[in-house]
Design a protein that fits this description.
The protein has 17 helices and twelve strands. The protein has 385 residues and is α/β, with parallel strands linked by helices.
Length: 385
């Protein structure tokens, strides 16, 4: 099993709080992580229909059986338990008493915060990071990494990526989406998802998508919120503080895993990744994810944005630390070109808060100047550590 970077944060959280809640996509490794860190805890999966029925119909008797040192898996399947857990930890504030996992973000986060405010630490676990794969000796070359994605089972069980993502996608649409919304036309939702993949790294245009899919803007926004809630897509917000009206204020859309993204783009082998017209955006998606994972694995807010203004100045990542802004440009090329730094120089002239920038690319030549440093993508996590 690949050791997860979030492990130390999870251990610390369990020493400080009676409840620790781990959220993230299905198959990102939440259950495995909880069991590895807390091997002596009882395990209870609320996906099991019999267990779930017991928990919902007689929660007091259920929790009498699971009162201390328990991992409750997929807690969103029985959210009513959260109020009962609140009462239990108020009476006995033993640290690390309950470990909860969940695969839905928005509603579950709100319910956890409402019921367990001040009683739980909330951690987010995304699929494997580049640094985790590198530490385990399983990091693949760029094109294979993009195609294979980062779900732990693919690496731990040596599963064929095409088969794995096909099953993941079908299970997601047939089970999770139907639980979250009243989906009347599955084919239109699937069309929307594939069109969204084709627009990865772009600012979302609902009018264009509405015309292409054939459903209203309202429906598309509902579907997008479902994709975000279930960790299929990630919104990258623009940074516009102190830059006035000249900057873009709509988010970009990325996917939580490049392997799933490649599947949705009908890329069926690592050999054709580099020839795909969206290779730049797929690689950009990978680096955006690495930045977010690096921060989340430390229990920190990502503080990751993008920047674009009406004059054509665009920065792929703005990493905010206090008032300081670190610009990061992402290039899929394996050959360095000084032109990669053009927008970094422009951005540094726009604000006194701009720090030295970084260029992340697929090559090995790593020059450094006063304005920027160049890094191979394998080590880009050092920017955000």
């Amino acid at each position: 099993m690949i050791k997860r970077d979030i492990t130390s944060e999870l251990i610390l959280a369990a020493q400080e709080y009676p409840v620790v809640t781990i959220i993230g996509p299905r198959q990102s490794g939440k259950t495995t992580l909880a069991k590895m860190v807390f091997p002596d805890y009882s395990y209870c999966s609320l996906e099991d229909p019999d267990i779930r029925e017991f928990a919902l119909n007689d929660p007091r008797s259920f929790l009498a059986d699971y009162s201390h040192n328990v991992i409750f898996d997929e807690i969103q399947r029985a959210p009513a338990l959260l109020s009962y857990l609140q009462g239990m930890v108020d009476k006995d504030n033993s640290k690390g008493r309950f470990i909860l996992t969940g695969s839905y973000q928005l509603k579950l986060r709100a319910e956890v915060i409402q019921s367990l405010a001040g009683r739980t630490a909330l951690l987010t676990l995304l699929p494997l990071s580049i640094s985790e794969l590198s530490a385990s000796g399983q990091l693949k070359p760029r094109d294979e990494l993009l195609y294979y994605g980062a779900f732990p089972r693919i690496y731990n069980d040596n599963i064929n990526p095409a088969r794995a993502y096909s099953n993941y996608y079908q299970t997601y649409v047939e089970r999770d989406v139907r639980q979250l919304i009243n989906l009347k036309n599955v084919s239109l939702f699937e069309k929307f998802l594939k069109l969204l993949a084709g627009r990865v790294g772009q600012i979302i245009n609902f009018n264009s998508l509405s015309n292409d899919v054939g459903v209203s803007n309202t429906t598309l926004k509902e579907w997008l919120s479902v994709l975000e809630a279930s960790f299929i897509i990630i919104k990258l917000e623009p940074y516009f503080e102190n830059f006035g009206k000249r900057v873009i204020k709509s988010p970009k859309i990325y996917f939580s895993d490049t392997g799933l993204l490649c599947y949705l783009l009908d890329i069926d082998s690592a050999k054709i990744v580099r020839r795909d017209p969206l290779i730049g955006q797929i690689f950009e998606n990978l680096i955006i994810l690495e930045a977010i994972k690096t921060r989340l694995n430390k229990g920190l807010s990502p503080n990751i944005y993008f920047f674009r203004d009406s004059n054509g100045v665009e920065i792929d990542i703005l990493y905010k630390q206090g008032a300081k802004l670190t610009p990061v440009e992402i290039k899929s090329s394996a050959t360095f070109n000084k032109a990669f730094s053009k927008n970094i120089h422009k951005f540094q002239k726009l604000t006194d808060n701009a720090e030295k920038g970084f260029i992340v690319y697929a090559g090995d030549f790593e020059p450094k100047t006063k304005a920027y440093s160049v890094l191979n993508f394998n080590t880009c996590s050092t920017i955000f550590s």
